[in-house]
Each structure stands twice: as structure tokens, then as C-alpha cells.
Write a structure and sequence with these properties.
15% strand, alpha+beta, 4 strands
Length: 195
């Protein structure tokens, strides 16, 4: 009987050892699978995180670029408005010239038209009627190589004058003169003021 008990005891020990080995192997397998699954989850999480960070970074750059463009556009608009106001102030300053100053300006402008001959039509701007009287036109006719004839027509809401040479018009309206200068000088003035 003792031998049977020893065999049973040996079988129990052998079964316990095999069970222990099997249990250890199974635990190792489960742990390896768990670690592999965990690494896969972490890798997937890292990949999603990098993708999200890249998307956020791209969105930030887009917003930053848009904001820079909007800021530049706003600054450009402000500069453009400043220049427009500057030229508008020039028109207003010219329109507020005294009749004497307007006449001196006109005399110089007419002297520069020394290639013209014959009778020319002088069309006055509504705001300059006090400056360019019939007496002044008569005085100019004595010194100019051409003759001015005052037109009954008036350019509404303008200062300065027009000279009409049989369909060819010489425009000395102050607003037009400033607009001509504006198209030529806007860039230079912008460089001077905003450089």
C-alpha cells in the first residue's frame, strides 16, 4: 500500500508540476498577448495623436496665414484710404483757393498752351465762376496767342476750367488734375509715407 501511495503521491506531484508549468506557460502567453495588444493600442493611439497634432498644426498655420493676409489687407486698405484722403484734401485745398490764386494758376496753364491758335471755348467750373470773369478773359486775350471765348456752359460742382479747341478738350478741372497726379504719384507717396 505504501507503494501505491507513493505512486499516487508521485503522480500528484507530477500533475501539480505539469499544472504549474502549464499555468506558467498560459500566464506567459496571456501576458505576451496582453503586452502585444497594449503595444498595438499604444501605437494606434500614437498614430492618431500624431495625425491630430498634424491636423491642428495645419489648421493653426492656415489660420495664422489667413490672419496675416487679413492684417496686410487691412493695412493696405488703411494706406489706400489715407492716400485717397490726402488727394481729396488736395482737391479741397485747390477748390478753396482765392480767385487771385485760381487766376494765377489759370494764367500759367494757358501760357503752357502756346501751340494753340484761333478761337477756343473757355468752360468754367461752377466753383470758379468768381475767379474767371469776362474781364479776366478779356485781359487774357490781350496776351495769349489764341482767343478765349467764354462758354455759357458751366461744369457743375467743379472748380477749374476746360479749354475746348474744336472738339479737343484740355481739362484743367482741379479734381481731374489731382486724379491724374494721383495715378502717377500714389506709388511714390506710398513709398515715402509707409516705407
Amino acid at each position: 500500500m505504501e507503494a501505491i501511495e507513493k505512486i499516487i503521491q508521485q503522480l500528484d506531484e507530477q500533475a501539480a508540476a505539469e499544472r504549474q508549468t502549464l499555468e506558467t506557460k498560459e500566464k506567459q502567453r496571456i501576458e505576451q498577448e496582453h503586452q502585444a495588444g497594449l503595444k498595438e493600442i499604444e501605437a494606434e493611439h500614437e498614430q492618431r495623436l500624431q495625425k491630430s497634432l498634424k491636423a491642428v498644426d495645419q489648421k493653426y498655420k492656415q489660420l495664422s496665414n489667413r490672419q496675416q493676409v487679413e492684417t496686410k489687407q487691412m493695412t493696405l486698405n488703411q494706406k489706400q484710404t489715407f492716400l485717397e484722403l490726402l488727394f481729396e484734401d488736395a482737391v479741397e485745398a485747390m477748390e478753396s483757393w482765392t480767385p487771385e490764386v485760381q487766376r494765377k494758376f489759370a494764367e500759367q496753364a494757358l501760357a503752357d498752351l502756346n501751340d494753340l491758335t484761333g478761337e477756343l471755348s473757355f468752360v468754367c467750373g461752377e466753383k470758379s465762376q468768381k475767379a474767371f470773369t469776362s474781364e479776366w478773359i478779356a485781359a487774357q486775350n490781350k496776351v495769349l496767342p489764341f482767343q478765349l471765348k467764354a462758354s455759357a456752359e458751366v461744369v457743375n460742382n467743379q472748380a477749374g476750367f476746360l479749354i475746348n479747341d474744336h472738339g479737343v478738350q484740355y481739362n484743367f478741372l482741379f479734381r481731374t488734375l489731382v486724379q491724374d497726379i494721383q495715378s502717377e504719384m500714389s506709388y511714390e507717396l506710398a513709398q515715402e509715407f509707409f516705407a
